[in-house]
Design goal:
single chain, alpha/beta, Rossmann fold, 5-stranded parallel β-sheet, 4 helices, 8 strands
Length: about 180
């Protein structure tokens, strides 16, 4: 990334600690790994979901993981492009039998999470859906809040928050909008 960040909210070590803490809180709140499944929202939530799942799996049985693409579920679908790129939702386990940990990198308006929940409910009715995010930048338009949170970040209107993935390292940074 050639652009210089205004602020590094979480460096690689801080992000790694946040992911471990989120995984620990998930296990504690759900009284262990039984019945859990992790679903990452394309695209930024997927690598984060893999990291959380790896942490969850260190002390427990294998946790199913899946991905959701929300393109067709967006409330602004007709406005995003004449030819939008539609990705794949890949959930290979029965949704009905699990407590789903829905994962995204940044929570902003809540619209992405709403779309992901709609997508999941088209596949079945999970026991529960809990939301894990690495960074919450505020600005909610819908009444959606994270159950598990890495960090809350104040971001001005002329700035944006980005989660940068370099190899296995994750960093959360604030950039100036152009």
């Amino acid at each position: 990334m050639s652009e210089k960040p205004l602020n590094v909210v979480l460096d690689a070590d801080g992000a790694a600690r946040a992911i471990k803490r989120i995984a620990s809180e998930i296990l504690e709140r759900n009284e262990g790994p039984e019945g859990l499944a992790v679903v990452g929202i394309e695209s930024g939530g997927v690598p984060l979901a893999r990291g959380i799942t790896a942490e969850l799996g260190k002390n427990s049985a294998e946790i199913p993981i899946g991905t959701v693409d929300i393109t067709l579920y967006r409330d602004d679908f007709s406005q995003i492009s004449e030819l939008p790129v539609i990705g794949e939702t890949n959930i290979s386990f029965p949704v009905d039998e699990h407590n789903i940990i829905l994962v995204d990198d940044v929570l902003f308006t809540g619209r992405t999470v709403r779309a992901a929940i709609d997508n999941i409910y088209d596949l079945g009715r999970p026991r529960r859906i809990q939301l894990a995010v690495l960074a919450d930048r505020g600005g909610r338009e819908l009444p959606i809040q994270p159950d598990f949170l890495g960090n809350t970040v104040e971001v001005a209107d002329d700035e944006y928050l980005d989660v940068v993935y370099d190899d296995d390292k994750v960093r959360v940074m604030v950039f100036k909008r152009e």
